[in-house]
Amino acid sequence: MTIYKCKMCGGNLEIKDGDLTCTCEYCGTKQTLPKLTSEIKANLYDRANHFRRNNDFDKAMSIYEKILNEDKTDAEAYWSLVLCLYGIEYVKDPQTGKMIPTINRTQYTSIYSDENYKSAIHYADSMQKSIYKEEAKTIDSIQKNILEISKKEEPFDIFICYKETDDSGRRTPDSVLANDLYHQLTIEGYKVFFSRITLEDKLGTAYEPYIFAALNSSKVMVVIGTKPEYFNAVWVKNEWSRYLTLIKNGEDKTLIPAYRDMDPYDLPEDFSHLQALDMSKLGFMQDLIRGIKKIVTQNTIPQNEKVINSNTDLQQQLEMLQQQLKQQQLQSNSNITALLQRGNMALEDKDWKKSDDFFEEVLNQDAQCAEAYLGKLLAKNTSTTFDEYIDSIINKYDKPETKMIEVCKPNQNHIEKIANEYYIPSYYEKKDIIAEYYKFDRTIEIIDINSILKNKDDAINHIKQDSLFKRTQQYANNKTLEIINSGLAKINEHYEQNRETAEKHNKNEIFNLTDKYNKHIKATDEIIKKNKVKAIELMEQNYQRAIEMFNIANSLWDYNSVKTEFMNLAEYKNATEFIQKCNDYIEMYKKNQVYYDLEKVIAFEKSKRKQDTVVIAIFIVVPIILILVIIIINNF
Is residue 338 located within the same domain as residue 283? Predict the structure, then answer.
């Protein structure tokens, strides 16, 4: 039995090998199952389904994709991608008690047009296909209803994305900041989606239609956060990741991360290409509103003023402005350029102290020179280029660990079948066949994939936690950003390649050992068959020898020895008959031995009486003779 968790309620399902559908005993839902061909695949499904049940759909999708890389025919993996794409969450119907789907990621496209759905149907068996179609029908109906509601909503200009409450249910600082931003933007005349207020009259209804409408109509999303975990909270990430997907698909939208009381380097990786704004800086609100005005066409503003619409991305404008200011600063002080050049030349000569001095002098004149911070970083780590520095970090953390696993279970049914068929009592016992002949070490040492992922995280964290790197990234222009992003991408590519290589290595090792075990089983079967033939030949020899011993036996000891020989032959031929004959002779000899012993006792008693008589005579006669001799001597 394989233990697999229900994809609706998370309860344990006991399924037989080969089953592709089952019914959960906890929630009563009939559901489809994946093709669990290995323990590794089962663990991947458990992990992915855990993320999906917790609405972390992006993480779940990446694992399902990994499963499909290994098996392109797994219908359940395709269906699971569909569930993630539409953000399907299963909740209990209060009226029927059944688990029903809800949609948290509405799409304009029908589920029937989705390629993953088509693949799931293509590779599914008849039972799976029936369940998939039934669920798809329910999801399609829910989606149509959501789209119908969302059409009636007026478009929004701005979407404020934030975390409303913390784990204790208390209101977060993010909520307060979002509230202030909402009122400022509303005063400016913008229509703003702020869930605390926008959805307050929607209590008791599903929020998805209104969130979907706001995400698709808003020109700008401002993501507010005061802690890294708030940016990555499930529902917060669900909103901004969907918005980023719209941008990637060609929508004319802008996402602006806004942080406070935290390190900007702790923002999600997905924001690395975006210009984040620090809410604690003076003039933040004015800068943000000025930037938004260049993006959004405002139809209703105070004093009927019109703001000219600009399609220029706020992030690009801010980056261009930073670059222009940086160029002006460098042009105003040509000495900085010369110092940077001399610092880089010292790096090439591997004169680390001199290069650090040159870059330090640059920072004395321009405290926000990213090139100088990068140069100091390289000098500190004795690297001539950032690429060389990246290689040194990779080498430092490129130490994957290994672990022992059991690649397969013993083929117990087959072994017991052979043992029952070929064993010979006393000569070829079942326990010896099972314990000795089929003994095989099925454990193997493989590369721990998780250790590779940990090494990658350690390598990236090592770089990002360096204060010089943080300054480099903070003040970097496009050229410097390209250098450091290329380096970080190199780390990701290196460890991803390591992971793929390790997975292939592990797969080959597991396959080879499994193949060796199967061959060992077949070879052992043949040995056991041959050994049985030899055992029978040996039994025949021992049988003939026992008969010869029986024929010449003439004592109790002889028949006991012969009996032992026949008992070792168990039920071979007529061995039991000879055992009985031996018992008869043994009983006869035992009786004869009793009579013989009794005669000996009688003879012994007679002899003993004669001896006693002689002794008595000696003790009586001899003293009398001695007395007579003494008397005679005295008379003379």
Answer: no
